[in-house]
Amino acid sequence: MAELKLSESRDLTRIERIGAHSHIRGLGLDSALEPRQVSEGMVGQAAARKAAGVILQMIKEGKIAGRAVLLAGQPGTGKTAIAMGMAKSLGLETPFAMLAGSELFSLEMSKTEALMQAFRKAIGVRIKEETEVIEGEVVEIQIDRPAVSGAASKTGKLTLKTTEMETVYDLGAKMIEALGKEKVQSGDVVAIDKASGKITKLGRSFSRSRDYDAMGPQTKFVQCPDGELQKRKEVVHCVTLHEIDVINSRTQGFLALFTGDTGEIRAEVREQIDTKVAEWREEGKAEMIPGVLFIDEVHMLDIECFSFLNRALENEMAPILVVATNRGITTIRGTNYKSPHGIPIDLLDRLLIITTQPYTEDEIRKILDIRCQEEDVEMSEEAKCLLTKIGVETSLRYAIHLITAAALACLKRKGKTVEMEDINRVYHLFLDVKRSTQYLIEFQNQYINETGDGDEDDANTMVS
Ligand SMILES: Nc1ncnc2c1ncn2[C@@H]1O[C@H](COP(=O)(O)OP(=O)(O)O)[C@@H](O)[C@H]1O
Ligand SMILES: [Mg+2]
Questions:
Q1: Sorted alphabetically, which Pfam families does this protein's record hold (predicted)?
Q2: What are the pocket residues of ligand 1 if the criterion is a CB atom closer than 6 Å to any ligand atom?
Q3: Among 35, 178, 400, 464, which lies 20 to 30 A Cα-Cα from 452?
């Protein structure tokens, strides 16, 4: 591995899923980190949001590594929402990796390898590269057709100009193909990366603006570049250590980044990459960006995972670890010991703990309001009142789920606005936990029941 491969990951787009938290666009804090009552999709939970904001500030300054935060609170109090809010406010450059505790046990790799990959997904590297580019307006493209078809590969000439000079370049078959693919024609302003031969169309030259009618409204007009045709440019790539790992691991291609099917990555590969990155840092070519690793439902981890986390946090390149749980005092997986939140004391000791509180009726109402907007559902005032009542009596999540269901019920009766009758209908169609439990108790003997002492974990969920 003489040269680390980077270019392939440049154009990777991160895939975002729309779902329960798509209405969250940030933490909703002002510049003094004070939470606004309703902002960026966030409602209430002021203390926790402010605390998350302080952590975020520390991350943005980029000076600290290896800190860990625990979000603790009852189910449905916005722990995951706050973590998503943090992710949204981080900006594109700072990586945010997310993992549910249980995922570690379902991948085709060891738990610690999965954790290692998650850690490296949360560490970004900004790499500065100087490249030579040729930037100019296309004067003419001339392609010579070979006399005997297929006898020799195509050749041609490309004339480029700036406001000050004009040069003719020889074209090989590869460049001719690339120009054709980009549909480059005279009058276009292009940039050509000298090393890779990659062609980027920057726009149409202003001098051709009279062709506007022929080009259509999407055309972007730009100035003809001035100065030399050949320029040095500094380009910055932001990638994560995990992306570099995958691209450079010989058994997996970079395509594994899309499928997620990366398998285990050998320790030597990682070592080499760490050495190389350290070299780049020394030469001032690269900068580390510790991001955030969020592990939801952290009580699902077992003692081996916790011990791995403890050690990984000691690393100078460690990201900020944010974990969340709704468990009270419960058994640490893989042991017979009980501990607060199911987390061993030595890890617990490193954590800054942020607690979330149950919502008031008014807050529930506002969250439901936001969700209605997010889901494009029109709802009458009375229906919203009823849904809020249901949210208070059952749970916020249940009430949120009813929005979609009620909107479907409304659609079915060809209504435009969700009314009380729709809410009422789906409330009776779908049980919440309380009613479902009641039902189970009534008809207990018709179900298959486990004998023995059952799952004692449930008794320890932080439900009031
Ligand atoms: N403060 C809040 N503002 C807006 N939406 C919230 C807030 N708290 C929770 N939600 C939404 O309520 C639902 C349940 O919250 P969630 O974060 O999943 O709870 P937890 O992770 O604590 O169990 C989610 O759809 C979440 O986006
Ligand atoms: Mg959650």
A1: TIP49, TIP49_C
A2: 20-21, 24, 41-45, 73, 75-81, 326, 367, 396-397, 400
A3: 464
